[in-house]
Amino acid sequence: MYNSKNISEIEGKQYDLVVSAGNRADSFRINNNGDADRSEIDHLVDTVLTAEIGELVLISTVCVYPAGGAPDENATLSERGLTPYGANRLHQERRFTTSVPTTVVRLPQLYGANLKKGVVYDLANDYRVEHIRPAGEFQHYDVRRLWGDIEIARAEGLKSLNVATPPISNETLAREVFGRDISGQVPPEPESPFAQMYTRNMTTAHAALFGASEAYLNTMEDELEGLRTFARASAEERN
């Protein structure tokens, strides 16, 4: 209902449920302009809180966890060691959760129709594939699952949900899903100093609620099969 142009119109409104997914996502720019990004976030939070809200769902990010380890929802959170992008989104989590009943939903890499960034998009569209680092790992999530998973989290009264899927190397993704061999590939530019400053292995303590086991919402094979289905559909659309 709202975007950056009309968000001021939320003032004084009353809602049983508000879903906030209004943050900018251009992490490269944000990591080099962290103060400006935090000001934008504070303005968004201040504006949203002018409404009377019964419940809020906040779409957040894996980037609130630093590199290393396999943190779940019980991990202690700190801005120390995070990128500006991650630190600012943790700051937003704290502001909302201390002001209104909130379910925080932390996302990994997304794939799906109309999403035009990320390694899955690049491989599916043969876009800048030479810049992909074979050994890099990401956790991939089909955005079509999102609202169903959010409804489970809300029904169970979860304060936070890590949308955790098994990490897959870029080399494995390219080979198993797109039939491409990128092993040994060396991108022409150095890696961003921010690129590895968040965990590639976010886990969840709530897998059983989603019919899963261990620390993820699905298995690696399920994740790969979902990616293959998406890849086939993308290829059919292009043809």
Automatic annotation (TrEMBL):
Pfam families: Epimerase (PF01370). It comes from the Bacteria. Residues 42-125 form the NAD-dependent epimerase/dehydratase domain. Gene3D superfamilies: NAD(P)-binding Rossmann-like Domain. This is NAD-dependent epimerase/dehydratase family protein. It comes from Microbacterium istanbulense.
